[in-house]
Design brief:
By secondary structure, the protein is α+β, with helices and mostly antiparallel strands. Helix content is 46%, strand content 14%. The strands form 2 sheets. A 4-stranded mixed β-sheet has the order 1-4-5-8. Bound molecules: flavin-adenine dinucleotide.
Length: 381
Amino acid sequence: MELTHTADVEAFRAEARDWLRAHVPARPLPSLETAEGFAAHREWEAVLHAERWSVVSWPEEYGGRGVDIVKWLVFEEEYWAAGAPGRVSQNGINLLAPTLFDHASVQQRARVLPSMASGEVIWAQAWSEPESGSDLASLRSRAVRTDGGWLLSGQKTWSSRAAFADRAFGIFRTDPDAARPHQGLTYLMFDLRAPGVTVRPIGRLDGKPAFAELFLDRVFVPDEDVIGEPGQGWRIAMSTTGNERGLTLRSPGRFLAAADRLVGLWQEQGDPADTALRDRVADAVVGARAYELFTWANAARFAAGETIGAESSLNKVFWSQYDIALHETALDLLGADAELADGAWAEPWVFSLAGPIYAGTNEIQRDIIAERLLGLPKGRR
Ligand SMILES: Cc1cc2nc3c(=O)[nH]c(=O)nc-3n(C[C@H](O)[C@H](O)[C@H](O)COP(=O)(O)OP(=O)(O)OC[C@H]3O[C@@H](n4cnc5c(N)ncnc54)[C@H](O)[C@@H]3O)c2cc1C
């Protein structure tokens, strides 16, 4: 594999770097898990969008630059290295959009993608239910046929930033008599402010209020907001999970930038006599580089027309464990009260603790790796 970039890619990198240097806010924005921070991050999305940096890999007609995966990864490296804000649009951009590119009609894409690219409409993921997390196919929320559309009823939970988001995408049971739980499900989009929707915020470990549970009482969804064929929701949802666990949600640029910051922290505050901690800093750099190389290998496979299936579970387990180790190293370096500080490391550390849970828990990912990649016998289920 060729690891040097072409002049064209390097020119793109330079353009992105210059733009980010000129536009990234001088002071960090407030947390996007608060109402104030959510609004500030929405404005940042509009700034990105104005010069087509919010969705660089999308076609130009939807607000992107139509660049390939190599340039997208290079943009991510520059984005995180520049200390740019976390992406409040990530559920839409990373999860719903790839699903729409694969399964939606041309009209749906034209209707949904431009306002997602600009941050005008911010999307929440409404998949999990109180009794259906890992065993998602057991979900009970339903959609019942009505004139011109569907009526949604039921309860969703753990919906990130749904307390402030505009719209949501989810899977609903449309055929309760289907032979298997994976059948008879339908994937659709709905408005979080529609009549019949109640959004109840759930406080996080750090008290930030953006998580929410959603109560749905005969919420009308027109046919034009169904993605793909009714009854095909599971198949469509599985194309979303590959994106969530794989490289789009956690591109290596984030970890390279975080490992760099960690090295800077060590240089400023590290105790040279603490060789055990110094080794953990070195491990963080090794991990970031290993993940980078693994991702470039995956990107090369994409570029060659291959797809990534169960391998995305390897990514998921790796980045989620790595994220915790990196942040714990930073906190140990900062001292005993670092967890309590509202600083550049404490909030991402709290969030890293959730990495082995969201996007499918690591126990489930290990089962997928064991069974589908390694061909080992089925275990717990
Ligand atoms: C920060 C965060 C953000 C999230 N954001 C969203 C969101 O935006 N939208 C959304 O829909 N959901 C979201 N979720 C929910 C998340 O997807 C679920 O929490 C996750 O799928 C696990 O489901 P559960 O919580 O019901 O736990 P359970 O499925 O009840 O699992 C509990 C424990 O049992 C283990 N377990 C369960 N079944 C098995 C098995 N067969 N074999 C081995 N171990 C098993 C699990 O691995 C886990 O350790 C979010 C969660 C977090 C923490």
